[in-house]
Amino acid sequence: MEEKSCKEQLTENTDINQDELILQQQRRIEMEISESIALVGEKESIKSLEREYSEDEIYLSKAKALGQKYSYIRRTRPDGNCFFRAFSYAYLEKLIGNKEEYEKFRELALKSKDSLVALGFPQFTVEDFHDTFMDVIDKVGEDTESSYIELHKLFNEQGCSDYVVVYLRLITSGQLRREADFYQHFIEGERTVSEFCRQEVEPMYKESDHIHIIAMSTALGTGIRVRYMDRGAGTEVTAHDFPEGATPAVHLLYRPGHYDILYP
Amino acid sequence: MSFEGKYNAKSPAVKRLMREAQELHEATEEYCASPLEDNLFEWHFTVQGPPSTDFEGGVYHGRILLPPEYPMKPPNIILLTPNGRFETNKKICLSISGHHPETWQPSWSIRTALLALIAFMPTPGNGTIGSLDYSKEERQKLAKKSLNWQCDICGKVVDLLSKNTVKKPITVEEQTMLNTIALKADDSPTSDMSYLVNSDTVSENQLRQRGIEPIINETQDRQQPDVIVNQQVETMSSSNDLFWSILIASLVSAIILLVLRRLFLV
């Protein structure tokens, strides 16, 4: 009798340990997979999506539909920062070839620091992120072939790449806080805008939702078209423009939980 | 402090820490902190016990370990001076509190972490890992004793705080953070602390000596230029350690099971 209860207890314990063990392992594997993917990859033919889904009818038909509209895809590391990383890479890449828009964006970026400090963000650290952000913008500012190489290099250096992400998160948070009355309607639950910002926008590795995209594209005055690819009905890949009605400067592909860059 | 040539000055983490070292260079009456001579990723700090609490008049010293991913990941704090609120020689980190979930933000800094530590000292430990719930008397006794405490590297810590410099005012944003933040012991076993696991039984004095020795060893170890790599390994191995301890625990349970079966079945 005693032996049995003892045994039961022991098996129970081992079960818990097993579960934990499996979870641990799963997390580690996920991390390893994530880290084996480049922060920002090379440009690939859009056909690589069709190959990826050769066994999956719904996604395959959507990948084919996407192939009608886009020629290339550039993948990013799925680490929760992918929206900000994908966007900033794609946008800077576009600006390399467009001097006028580049200067406009540089001016806006330059001024953004003071308005963040005015909103109450700690000056000392905001300055640190802003300096690196401006460094990156300046380094890709020369309209030459080497700017593309430099951009790719900078975005694959973890430190530099993450600093750009942090700064865009701050800009997004700043926009949400400035227009708190408006954005409050988009936040589910009991959270205030500033709570939402501290929990879902400012910390790294937190995934981006519509509200992040609306706020950031509005703050930067840049159009973004997101193509949604999921298991929903139809063979089309729905497009959504942020902010509504804007001419898209950057195209992104969304698959549940992740953003990559698309090229027409 | 001469870190030039030793670290990649282009690395944002290095630039950031140099800046923070500059900012915290001057001691206030509330806290002071600076990186070790030869390791930008390990700092020593001293904080004043918060006034009108059990810790009033005490001066507490400790280490700050910065992950290679700093400021994307939070710093870890280790207290060295016995204080009756936090176990000494145990990593504590800025973490999520029950009511208002908060996570580390890259725009926080070492100053934020120190302010959080000071603000968190008078809160009840509630039996969480790494917390101590010593009585008021014991804490006051330790606070008095702390004035004579010496760090092997920094010397008599009571002299480190400035008596004249007015403390920098806490900003609104910092206050919001302080209202919601919690400090928690890092419960994953870490390589550089593992030999202290049984330290509960040793006397305070021994503990103090043992707590200081490893710092010296580490400083020697870390004199090689691959400091950053070392730390990366350390951070990564902590999850590995947890994995192994779980594995060992399940193996031990299995063996006990077999022994019990053998005992009772025969």
Automatic annotation (TrEMBL), chain A:
<feature type="site" description="Interacts with free ubiquitin">
    <location>
        <position position="230"/>
    </location>
</feature>
<feature type="site" description="Interacts with free ubiquitin">
    <location>
        <position position="228"/>
    </location>
</feature>
<dbReference type="GO" id="GO:0006508">
    <property type="term" value="P:proteolysis"/>
</dbReference>
<dbReference type="InterPro" id="IPR003323">
    <property type="entry name" value="OTU_dom"/>
</dbReference>
<keyword id="KW-0788">Thiol protease</keyword>
<dbReference type="InterPro" id="IPR042468">
    <property type="entry name" value="Peptidase_C65_otubain_sub1"/>
</dbReference>
<feature type="site" description="Interacts with free ubiquitin">
    <location>
        <position position="254"/>
    </location>
</feature>
<feature type="active site">
    <location>
        <position position="79"/>
    </location>
</feature>
<feature type="domain" description="OTU">
    <location>
        <begin position="71"/>
        <end position="264"/>
    </location>
</feature>
<dbReference type="GO" id="GO:0071108">
    <property type="term" value="P:protein K48-linked deubiquitination"/>
</dbReference>
<feature type="active site">
    <location>
        <position position="258"/>
    </location>
</feature>
<dbReference type="InterPro" id="IPR019400">
    <property type="entry name" value="Peptidase_C65_otubain"/>
</dbReference>
<dbReference type="InterPro" id="IPR038765">
    <property type="entry name" value="Papain-like_cys_pep_sf"/>
</dbReference>
<keyword id="KW-0645">Protease</keyword>
<protein>
    <recommendedName>
        <fullName>ubiquitinyl hydrolase 1</fullName>
        <ecNumber>3.4.19.12</ecNumber>
    </recommendedName>
</protein>
<dbReference type="GO" id="GO:0005634">
    <property type="term" value="C:nucleus"/>
</dbReference>
<comment type="similarity">
    <text>Belongs to the peptidase C65 family.</text>
</comment>
<dbReference type="GO" id="GO:0004843">
    <property type="term" value="F:cysteine-type deubiquitinase activity"/>
</dbReference>
<keyword id="KW-0378">Hydrolase</keyword>
<feature type="site" description="Interacts with free ubiquitin">
    <location>
        <position position="259"/>
    </location>
</feature>
<dbReference type="InterPro" id="IPR016615">
    <property type="entry name" value="Otubain"/>
</dbReference>
<dbReference type="GO" id="GO:0043130">
    <property type="term" value="F:ubiquitin binding"/>
</dbReference>
TrEMBL record, chain B:
<keyword id="KW-1133">Transmembrane helix</keyword>
<keyword id="KW-0472">Membrane</keyword>
<keyword id="KW-0812">Transmembrane</keyword>
<protein>
    <submittedName>
        <fullName>Ubiquitin-conjugating enzyme E2 J1</fullName>
    </submittedName>
</protein>
<dbReference type="Pfam" id="PF00179">
    <property type="entry name" value="UQ_con"/>
</dbReference>
<dbReference type="InterPro" id="IPR016135">
    <property type="entry name" value="UBQ-conjugating_enzyme/RWD"/>
</dbReference>
<feature type="domain" description="UBC core">
    <location>
        <begin position="12"/>
        <end position="160"/>
    </location>
</feature>
<dbReference type="InterPro" id="IPR050113">
    <property type="entry name" value="Ub_conjugating_enzyme"/>
</dbReference>
<feature type="transmembrane region" description="Helical">
    <location>
        <begin position="242"/>
        <end position="260"/>
    </location>
</feature>
<dbReference type="InterPro" id="IPR000608">
    <property type="entry name" value="UBC"/>
</dbReference>
